[in-house]
Specification:
By secondary structure, this protein is mostly helical. The protein is 77% helix and 5% strand. Keywords: Membrane, Transmembrane, Transmembrane helix.
Amino acid sequence: MNLQVKTKNHACSCPGADLVFWILSSAFVSWGFFFPGTTRVLRGVVLLAGILTSIVVISSTLYMFWSTKNGCDFHFLGPFLFTSLLVLIAFALIQVFMPMGKLGSTVYKGLAPILFSAFIAEGTDNLIKRFNYDEYIWAAISLYLDILNLFLALLRR
C-alpha cells in the first residue's frame, strides 16, 4: 500500500510513507496512555480548547475552499500576520520584565487566538493555491504548527 499524491498531470509515490504514518500514529496514541495524569487535572480545559480549535480549523478550511472557488486571494495577509506576531512576541517579553497584571494577560490571551486563527486561514490559502505537489510536506507542517499554536493559545489561563 503506497500513498500517492495525484494532480492533474503528475503522481508522486512515496514508498516509505505508510511506515512513517503508522509509526507516528502509534506514537501519538501511546502518548495518551503514558501521560494520562496531565490531562486528568485539566480535562475540561483541554477538551474545550480541542473543540474550539476543531471548529476554527474546519470553518476556516471550508471558507478557504469557498473563497478560492469565488476567486478571493488572502496572500496579502502574510506581512500583516508576521508583523502582528512580532508585536505579540514583544508584548510577551514586556510582560516578562514588566508585568502588566490581569489586563495585560487578558489582552495577550485574547489577541493570540485571533492571530493564530488568521495564520490558519492564510496557511490554508497557501496550501490550496501556492504549494505544488512536491511541497505538500512543508505545507502540512506549516498548517500543523498553526493549529498547534492556536490550541496552545487557547489552553493558556
